[in-house]
Design a protein that fits this description.
About 40% of the residues lie in helices and about 15% in strands. By secondary structure, it is an alpha/beta fold.
Length: about 160
């Protein structure tokens, strides 16, 4: 592997078991960073960690439900214990519900989306920021779907079809 500005650095990626999270974990690895793959899918996490290690850097797959403060604390503690630092966080864990009118979204669906997509970001940053400040800095990217920027008919941002 070529030398990189990320060599010796550590990236914490939520939603790393597949999709954009996995792609981000692999991108960090290609640039030389060790990667913590954090997700509720242990099987997907392990596969992402295996793929990272094929690229050369070290990896840690850890179960982490971003709606649970104690899961995030445990995952970040394991990150520091294993790698001694946290340089990058890519907070990507997120879900969406089926496209339907806002009046048809159940309270349970709404609460689950808010817990994962918003509260999860808050809880991650709440614990990531102090770790990064303690070592002199770092970088955090919070990912969202395109629906968070531009709605689509029947989607998350078009009233009366939906509300989020």
């Amino acid at each position: 592997m070529k030398a990189s500005q990320f060599a010796g650095r550590v990236a914490f990626v939520t939603g790393a078991a597949n999709g954009i999270g996995r792609a981000a974990a692999l991108a960090f690895a290609r640039e030389g960073a060790s990667v913590v793959a954090a997700d509720v899918s242990e099987r997907g996490n392990k596969e992402t960690a295996r793929m990272v290690e094929e690229l050369g850097p070290h990896a840690l797959a850890i179960h982490c439900d971003v709606t649970r403060n104690e899961d995030i604390e445990r995952a970040l503690k394991a990150t520091i214990e294993r790698f001694g630092r946290l340089d990058f966080a890519f907070n990507n864990a997120g879900i969406e519900y089926a496209i339907k009118p806002a009046a048809d979204v159940t309270e349970d669906e709404w609460d689950r989306i808010m817990d994962i997509d918003l509260r999860g970001i808050f809880l991650c940053m709440k614990h990531q920021i102090p770790l990064m400040l303690k070592q002199g800095g770092g970088a955090i990217v919070n990912n969202s779907s395109g629906a968070g920027v531009r709605g689509f008919k029947g989607g998350a941002a078009t009233w009366p079809r939906s509300t989020a």
